[in-house]
């Protein structure tokens, strides 16, 4: 059991959620077009992720902070089942802590704004498809960057930029969750599980689709590294091919 890594995922996910929900709270006071609000919210989530990935937390655990990312690495044979399960549990628990902190520290006029929900004008099926597509694209981007000797060190930054773009494009459709833990934390705190099954399904399918597409395109090759901070010296629980 790799308790230090699990704790790092727990803490990192809490920081990521707190940063993103802080953005949602602060932008609620701004009178601006929706696209500007979505950009700002995406930026807060992205900055939270980048900070975690390149911090000692991310350098130790890999900075997954997303069940779909962890699940895809497990499917690729780079994590043991127990480690992957403990990572996901830690991510869920960290998301609850991050949501609790954000909902406690700030005086929310509408706490439901912390939830990632489908847009009012969109049926469930299009929302599910969007979430599957953007989640699988996220995982494929992670796999591609960590497999590149030249681009690997930019994985965290690239994923942060991807979060901003996807939030701007799809927040009005699906909430642009990208991360089941991001849904889970606020849902538990508010006891609002509206559409949680959609995001659970999207996370599972997104990991499966990404795994299938990446391994099909690379003829079965595994990602070279499992850390979004890429090839970090120190203890490593992964079964990847990087020299560390």
Describe the structure.
This protein is mainly alpha-helical. It has 9 helices and no strands. It has helices at about 5-25, 35-55, 55-60, 65-75, 80-105, 125-145, 155-175, 180-190, 195-215.
Summarize the structure.
By secondary structure, the chain is mainly α. It has helices at 3-27, 34-54, 56-61, 67-75, 81-105, 124-146, 155-174, 180-190, 196-217. It has nine helices and no strands.
What are the defining features of this structure?
single chain, 244 residues, mainly alpha, Glycerol uptake facilitator protein, 66% helix
Low-pLDDT residue spans? none
- Please state the overall shape, judged from the principal axes of the Cα atoms: globular
| Helix-strand sequence | HHHHHHHHH
Main sheet summary:
none
CATH top level label: Mainly Alpha
Number of domains: 1
CATH architecture descriptor name: Up-down Bundle
In CATH, the homologous superfamily goes by the name Glycerol uptake facilitator protein
The CATH topology is given as Glycerol uptake facilitator protein
Count of extended strands: 0
Gyration radius over CA: 17 Å
Oligomer: single chain
The share of residues in helices is: 55-70%
